[in-house]
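Structure tokens please, single chain.
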Amino acid sequence: MPRMLDVSDAVRAEIGDEEADRLLAGENAPGSYDCTSCRTPGDSEQERTSTVLFVGDETAVLAFAHASCLPSQVVQVTEEQLQGAVRSIGGTGSDMAAGGQAHDVAPEQAVLGVTSGLVLIEGELHPALVVEPTAPIVRPGSTGSGDDFLPLLIEQGFMPVMELASVPPVLHGWSVLLAVGRLHAVLQPGTGGGQPVAWWQAHQPLQVTDSWRAAANKHQQVLMFAAPVGSIGRQPREDLLRDALDKAAAHGKLVAAALPLAGT
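Here you go.
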């Protein structure tokens, strides 16, 4: 039976016309699936379904999502993220598999801790993400033992913050992917102007508060603050998080940017 599938031009270009036509005809597409966005069941025979292709260096994982959650698209991820996704769904890593979702693997194997909260700047509440690694981040290819996390982000366009007195400038090309009220990823520009790639991606979509989501929809952007390991810590309340941000800024250990919002 034909499926109610959306296959974007970008996905069709990656998988080929023959495979796309087989999917649309219902030959290779599952009837039921777990949405790769909200993780709840879907049925491609009963509701519009998006094909989402996660592409690594050598492997591609074809996932399915409610069309109301995500549009059909190609998402570039690292090969290690993709192998984790394939393992999580019981695949072999050599073929496209259904229902996969990439895992959160940060550069140099340090895990990026991400905390959401509202930050008051110039009398207005702004949605913010605070990123802090669990270990020092060294420059790729470096044999040193230093921490290059902030210099690497500054090279990408993030700005040093000495105090939280004004909203940081927008960093075009980067974005925060929010779908169905959950935080999915921070995306950065692809190489050579290609598809955006996941700089950070949640293992499972993170729930955010209604007030955070409302502020994100109002401003259509999210402020991202980043600090080296040991600068912020896990703060249980937003006032304590703000204090930690202020201290990190005062010590020259904070960078920030405003990232456009992708999704709702």
